[in-house]
Structure formats: C-alpha cells, structure tokens
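Hello again, I could really use a second opinion on something today. For a while now I've been wondering how a particular protein folds. Please have a think about how the structure follows from the sequence. Here's the protein in full, and shout if anything looks odd to you:

***
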Amino acid sequence: MAVVALIDFGSGPTSGLLPLLALGPAFASVACGLARTTVVGVIALALCVALGLYNDILWTPRTNITMAAILGVTVASVLASAGRLRHERQLADVRSVAEAAQRVLLRPVPRRAGPGIGVAVSYTSATAEARIGGDLYEVVTTPHGVRIIVGDVQGKGLEAVETAAVVLGAFREAAHDEAKLQGVVARLENALTRELSGEQFVTGILAEITGSTSITVINCGHPSPMVLGADGKHWFADPPDEALPLGMGSLMAGEPTPHQIPFEPGDQVLFYTDGVIEARDGTGKFYPLPARAHLLNGADPQLALDALRADLLRHVGRPLGDDAAMLLLRHRAARPTSSAA
C-alpha cells in the first residue's frame, strides 16, 4: 500500500493505481488476525480518500468504485481471517488429541531393559502432521524376563492405528500372563481374530531376554533383525522356521518355533520395520542398512539410533512413503572390578 501511494503521489491522477490498495487487506487475511486485518483495511480506505483529495478526484465515479471495492475486500478478508483462525484452533485441538493418543499407544520405553542392556527407539510416521501410524513397538519387564515386540500393520491410516492399538493392548497383558513366548503369540492371534477382517494381517517379531548371552525370538513374517557383534561384524538373524504373520495363525499347522540370537556383552540387535529397508531415494535405490551399521557405534544408544534415522531421511530426501520404526538393544560390556583392574 505504501508503494502504491508513493507512485500515485508522484505520477498524479492518471496512474490509476488506487484499486491496488485493496491488495493490503487481501494479503493481511492470510497471516493477520481480525483486528489487524481490519486496521489494514481502514488504512487502505484512508489512503484512497487522501490520494483522492490530493489528486482532486474524490467523489468521482472511479474513486467511489475504488473505495467500495476496498471496503468489500476488507469485509471479505475479515471473514476469511476468522475462518482461518477457526481452522487453526481445530487443527491445534486435533494435534493435541493425536499427541495424547501417541502417549497411550506408543509409550516411552525404558532406557534400560535389565542389568547392562540399553534400549533406544525411533519412530517416523509417513502421514503428514502425524506422529503415529501402523508400526508398533513395546518393551515390557515381566516375571518371565524382558519381552519385546516390533510390528507392522498392513495398511495405513486410522484403521492401521486401531489395529496397532489392539496388538499392543493384547501384548502388554499377555506378556505378564504367559510363561512362554508361544503363549503370547497365541494371545495376539486371538485378539486379532476378533478384530481383523478379510486378508488383513500384522507382521511382527517377538523377543524375550531371560539370560545374558542370548535372545529368544519368534519371527512372524517380519524383517529379520540385524545383529552387530562386538567384533564389528554384522549379520541378519534369519529364523530357521519363520511363522506366518499375526492374524493368519489359522493357516499354521502348529505353534511357531522360537530361535536364539547371540547377545554377548558389546553386541547390539536392531529391530526395524520394512519402512526402513524399503525406503528409496530419488533414483529408486533402497536404503543400504548394512552399509550404515557403523552409525550405531556411538557411545549412547539413543544418539546412535537418531544418527541412523537422520541418515535414512537424508537418503530419501523427502517424506517417507511408509512408517519406519526402529528399536535398538545394546548389551553393555561389564565394567571390570577393582581387583581385575
């Protein structure tokens, strides 16, 4: 509005720039509140009157039409600003509900799972403005040991979130009640049988830490965890007998078979969902997780996992196409006693 007024002041009544003063309240409605938008409109109208007096064209038909246009744009801008502010308040309410749901669904996991075992988690939702999705994880300390689940619900959106809530609720209860890991899987199957329909399923991996040298794992159609040894070598712990995904247990002939993963002092085990290994860059190249294993060698497990997540996002270079969850277990080396030192 200042630029229009200066040009009109210098060029006289022949410039015909007065209608451009209506741009002021129009742009104000995009970022300003009701009061400021109204003030901008009043200033635009006052500038139009002042320039009309200066150029001796006030109350001419052209000036009258310009003032009416500025007044109309100001009223429309105030209404638009009111609608924008209402939608912003509604979005803030939705975000607060989503954050509350996240705290209930994906609770913060303990930084330690038993003596000398560090835990770190990372979750990246593929849905814009969302912090939860179809991936899930949980770490529970029970009388039977530390039990862990990492899973991925087929599909996306609110339906996937609801299914994830069912799985986590059933796991948190069954992890305390069932003596064997196969019993936890059976309880999850029963819960999903009541909830899922058609050909829906949930891939998942359940783990149990009872000793200090190994982890018991049941893989239900999920990507195999990556083991990083204290010697610097890394490999994927493929199961000898992979079970069907959760929700498809009726097709299995018997119980899933658990297997052991070495977990010596200094070792690490990374559980993840397919959103990590299937993330592509602009050329279609998958994320090279094995080549990035060295990023997990940091002193703090959470900082190391955050570095891996940042590298994943740099590789993709845009929002992820699928949710990506990672859970890292680190077996800290025992500290030497004073006599050994």
User: Anything to note?
Assistant: The radius of gyration is 31 Å.
